Amino acid sequence: MDNQIIYLIYILSFVIGSIIGLVLSYKKYTEPFIKKNMDMVALIMAIIGWVLVLNNPLLMVIPYYITITIGIFLIALVIGMRPGYGRYETVIGFSVAGIIWIIRMGLT
Amino acid sequence: MRLGRLWNSLATPKRIPRVFSIILGLVLLAGFIVPLTYNDNQLYPRPTPQLQISEKDPLAPYDRGGVPLKEPGIVKAQYPNYAPAEGMITGYLSPISIGVSNTTLYYGTSIYSSPGGLIDEILYYSRGFDTFLESSILMMAFVVASWVAIHFTMRRRED
Amino acid sequence: MDLSTLGGQFIGIIPLGDIVLYFTTFNLFMFAAVLAFTVLIAISRTESQVEAQFGTLKDREKKVGKAEFKIRRFLAIVCGLATAGAMVTGDVFDFTLFVALIGIVNIGIVAAVKEIDVLDSAFQYGIIAMIASLPLFGGAAFILASSGTLSLLEIVNIPTTTLMLFGSILLFLGVAGETGVAPFFATKAEMFRTPGSPFLLIIHLSSLMVIVRIIEILLIINKPF
Amino acid sequence: MLDVYVWFYTGAFLVIFGSIGTAIGPGVKDPLIRTINTEIPAIGVSLIFLTYNHTIALLTFIAATTIISMILLRAIVRLEEMGAEL
Amino acid sequence: MSASVLVPSVVSPVVVSLYLPAVFTAILAALIGLLAISNQKNDLHTLILTDIVGVGMLILVAAVGTDLAESLILPGLVVELAEIMAISEILMSREMRKLGKTVELIPLPLNMNMEIMDTAPTFIAILLIAYGAFLTGFTGGAVAGGGILFYVLSKMTRGVPTNTWEGIAGASGIAWCLWLVGFLIFFIAPNYWLLALFLGAFGVFIKVTFKVGLVGVMGREEFKREKE
Amino acid sequence: MDHKYGKINMLEFINITSVSAAIIIIGAVGIIALPKPIDKVIMLTILQGGFVGMIVAGKYLDVAMAAALFDPIATVIFLIGIIKLDEIRKKKIKQKTQEERFLA
Amino acid sequence: MNLMADILLNVIIAFLVGSVLFGLQRKIMARIQMRPGPPIIQHLLHTFKFFIKESAFPKTAAMPFYIAITAMLCAIWVAAVIVGPVTEGSLLLFFAIYALHKIVEHNAGSSSGSPYGKMSCVRAVFSAAAELPLFAVLIIIYLKTGTMNIGNIVTYQGQYGPLIWGIPLAAMMFFVLILSKAPYSPFAITKGKDIISGYETEHFGLLRGYLMISESIAWYMLLWIFLTVFIGGLSPIGYLIGMILISALVALINATTPILNPNHSIMVQVSLAFIGVLGSIILLTVY
After folding, report:
1. How many interface pairs between D and E have CB atoms less than 8 angstroms apart?
2. How many structural domains is chain E composed of?
3. Residue span of the structural domain in which E26 resides
4. In chain B, is it the N or the C terminus that has fewer CB atoms within a 10 Å radius of its CB?
């Protein structure tokens, strides 16, 4: 039951994050995906988000579900962007977090 | 695409009864191989055929004992506990049938005993719900047939 | 083996002499669902089909006439009640009779229309239903002969014999034919081209629900373990 | 006791023989002839009912057979009258 | 009368020994019927052939050889009768629609100058109805209904309006309700079982009689139609 | 059944059951073999006669009575059907020939 | 009260996850077909959108019925959630719910009076002939495990390992069933684009919203049943990963196959069901 509430919160944060990401990205980019520039804000958000989700035990002060909720929200912001935007950011964020995760696994 | 054509042809309404009968025939063929284990511990068993009539029982072949309105007849029902008046109908004889059974041996008088008698016990009481459905089936069939007859067959000039 | 393995919690019985209706969660759910649909059908109007005509810009409206509407609604309600009964009955022969009633009423619902194609598939379906009465009642008779009883509440405690298996296969074929289920749906699908969707719903509803129920009955009769 | 077996096997013979006659007998292309032929299995079934002493079922069956043959004849005559080619 | 003559504890060995041949007979008959159907292209012939399949079904049920089996034959019989009637009606209505108005139905005067047709029907019909009245229930209904049917069929009772028809149908509906009430009394107030029995038996009797009689009204249309 | 003929063994088989069985089989073969519908109906009455004999052998006289009542009905129904069909067919042939004549 | 909260929670999870999975599926299909594709959240947004749109009812519709059918569809899938994740009840009951779903799908189409709906209705009846045999895979599960209770099946799998290894053909059949429920699948004849939106063509506004909600729940529930019954006893994360994987696989198949002609679609499914049932029974008797 408690577990399910937490997962519901994750899903909700994903959904809300995606919606906000979509809305904001439409404001920010008025044309369809043409330029292959990297969006720095999105990149940072993606990295932070993925790191938070995959490596939440690093932040021992905050309960894990809050970390993950914030992380999912940030990920969703990037994933949910206008079609075409946010792809590279997500991939980079995921790989950075993955590397950290592997290092962490190797250390412990 | 021969397979496709076969699938198409299987979906033609006109062919379906024939396909069904072939399938059913194939399944029925298995009936010759299946060991037909008859369980002789049945509900509502009846005496050997012609036994009652050769014993000169005037109520043959439906005599199951009992005294009308007093004593229930012998009935081997599935759930005797759900049928409080069990056996009474079997034992019941209408006045006509009492008269007939006193005068002659060779009329299967239990037919005259209707209402009453063994089959009525099963038909109306212990398995009465079957009869309910059965008469509903008959009624629905007549509703359908007569509706079609009235609206299409007879008034055909109207449309 | 008992009934609750299949249908969930055992709720209760309604004894009518030898015929005992029983309720498990499964039966009760199906019973309630069928009744809900029946009520819905009883209060609904029919839709009218609008089709474009060739040559002109006009539309053609296909409606259900009043006399037709009345008879079809009546038959649809009967069919719904019969289906609801088939969901809860605890007697093999009673079940077959319910199915036979559903079959004849289904034929009636489509027989009241005017399209030739639909009448044709109604006729073919009727022929199947008639042929299917052999496996339907024959299967029930085999089950009676080999087990000595027809009540599902008793059969559940009797070990399966080969004849019971054969009888239940026949029973299944009979139900499939009588309700027009796979792979004989083609006749039935043709019948749905006519207007009057609430009534057509009950045809489909009855066949699917009865199929679900027959699976329960087959599993009760044939105990694999 | 012998009687019972005579009834039964005569009935069984009639059922099978009559069915074959109805299915592939001479002249069964005519629906009328086919309907008359169906009377043979019907009598066979009656005899089997008699074997088992299903008296009331037998009575009902005799009545029902007559009604069924009437319904079938009605359909035959009617379709023929219309000149329907099925 | 010993109890074993009345009701034995198990089914008699004669019935058990006959089970195998009976089932084989039924399966054979059904197989013949099914094979014939699978080769049949004519719808009318298919309809006639389903009769044979029905015969197989009746034998299968009868072969169980108990009182229960006998009471189960009756539903099978009724289902068979009911379906054949509804389907034949559909077949006719389909053909009628298919041919449309182009083929005018020529009403033929039927000249049957047979002696037997004048005297026999009334007598036989009265006998049958009287006999059916003795029987009650399904059997009685079928017998008496057969009598009515035969009478209507062979006599010149023309011009039965739709109202009469609906009246008869309504009467049989009421009879059906009688039967239902009887059935309920059995379980709600078992003390009055005799009343319930009579209600049930006569309800079914009246219902079946009227319904079967209706066939005659339908049949009259065909066999006794005259020039309009 | 009839033991007064008991002197010769063979005659023991000639009781009402076997005689009616023989009649029934004759009737059945006749129905299938004879081509004309009217002949078939005659054979049908023979078949039904044998059947009534069988029932009488079983001593169910009431069933025999019902059968005896219904048999003529079946016969009459078949007769009506045959006559009617005959008429329709004749008429059709006539129409056909007339049309052919008209065309010629 | 606790039960009510549990039901509500599960229904909301089912709805949200189902919608997002549908979105994901569209996205994957689009990428395979070299299109950017809509955002993953798109399906969910569509659902919400329909709730604020104006609702219109066709003049030709069969009135109380046309509206009630959407509520009915919602109700039966909520019932499915109750049977599934909440109470872990009988699989047979789930089968009944699926059958009811077919009925509602059929009638949502025909009650509007639109010819497209009618076509979809005819096809729904037709496809029921194929989908019910597929669903009969539950019987094989029963024959294998000896129970119909979802909870007991999970404990059985805890003992003997996932059922997908024991009865792979059954899993294949169930996967075909899931495939047939996905939009744009080769078997989705009831919603094929040749008949506009199939049975949903004439349902606008609020009603369409309800239909979409129930479809999302249905998708989630089908995947849930598949994972529970064939793999068993997963953690929520496991469920999520499993569902995403299946959705992706389905999307891959859908993106690369054409929609079949109705007859052929049915017969392919029937043939698969036939092979599956026969093969499974042979496998069961061999082991």
Report:
1. 172
2. 2
3. 11-99
4. N
